[in-house]
Write a sequence for this structure.
């Protein structure tokens, strides 16, 4: 496949990468190929691509998959994207914010794959949005800052709110790394492609997830402090009541949020729902 000349395409449409949307276009062909291979795309697959950009990756996905639904938030990129993808009849282009779109409607099939090159700060929001849809993906493949990908794969002792919010839905693993020079313009840091194999069901049900995120956000507000203090502050509960909650869940109140495993969070959610009024 001929290399897509991103520079001339941008010039022809009088466009510049928009920093506000984190636009760093992946132009290295070998890196693009590795992403498609990491996603394990097959000829029978439907792929939802989030952040299609100028179509560098979209072209490869369209060649590998049965169908591609490409979502791009920047309306200015839609004309060049349509030009690049004009010869691919199995690709549908949608301009919009994925967080405001229903994947069940735009994809319309079960067990689809998701491929995305997105700013890391909306990673957990996108995953939760995808999995709250009636039809959820079988696999999610995200390209992001390498250090963030490592954080998402962290184990108890070094967990973050982001890591937990991903691991409650599936098992993450780093598939490949991508140097900054593979992008235009090059970002300040290297990237990595993270694969997430989605559980058949989240580690907690929908009602538990709501309380899990309430507790976890409170717990990580001040990660250097003990849980009895962070939860007391975040939940606006007396310290004594928080200590009772933690002890009833079998958790030492002096521990810190990053040390708790998902099993402990689930137990804590159960106790929270049983002892807090209206839960």
């Amino acid at each position: 496949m001929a290399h897509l000349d991103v520079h001339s395409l941008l010039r022809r449409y009088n466009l510049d990468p928009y920093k506000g949307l984190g636009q760093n276009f992946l132009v290295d062909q070998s890196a693009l190929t590795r992403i498609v291979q990491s996603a394990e795309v097959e000829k029978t697959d439907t792929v939802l691509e989030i952040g299609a950009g100028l179509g560098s990756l979209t072209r490869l996905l369209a060649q590998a998959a049965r169908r591609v639904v490409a979502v791009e938030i920047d309306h200015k990129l839609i004309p060049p994207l349509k030009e690049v993808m004009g010869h691919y009849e199995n690709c549908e282009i949608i301009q919009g914010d994925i967080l405001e779109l229903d994947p069940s409607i735009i994809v319309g099939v079960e067990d689809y794959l998701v491929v995305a090159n997105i700013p890391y700060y909306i990673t957990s929001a996108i995953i939760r949005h995808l999995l709250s849809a009636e039809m959820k993906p079988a696999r999610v493949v995200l390209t992001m800052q390498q250090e963030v990908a490592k954080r998402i794969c962290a184990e108890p002792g070094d967990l973050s709110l982001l890591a937990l919010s991903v691991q409650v839905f599936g098992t993450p693993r780093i598939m490949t790394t991508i140097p900054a020079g593979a992008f235009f313009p090059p970002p300040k840091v290297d990237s990595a492609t993270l694969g997430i194999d989605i559980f058949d069901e989240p580690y907690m049900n929908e009602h538990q997830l709501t309380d899990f995120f309430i507790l976890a956000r409170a717990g990580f507000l001040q990660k250097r402090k003990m849980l009895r203090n962070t939860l007391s502050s975040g939940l606006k509960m007396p310290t004594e009541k928080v200590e009772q909650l933690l002890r009833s869940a079998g958790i030492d109140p002096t521990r810190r949020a990053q040390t708790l495993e998902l099993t402990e969070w689930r137990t804590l959610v159960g106790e929270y729902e049983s002892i807090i009024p209206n839960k």
